[in-house]
Specification:
This protein is an all-alpha fold. It is built from three helices and no strands.
Amino acid sequence: MLRVEALHVDDDLRTLGADSLFVLELASIIEDEFDMYVPAETIGTLTSVRDISTWIDATRSAAAG
């Protein structure tokens, strides 16, 4: 995980040290917490917490119909 004291929703996770292992761990956490499949490639293209949150909301809305 990232080792930062504070994280803003618009911070670029890559500049904070997010690497491929972080992306895999984050995808796994999201899958567990939200009971949804998350391609690691998708998470890797999202650069901030806001982007990830928006993607989760859109994916869940699309699944709900």
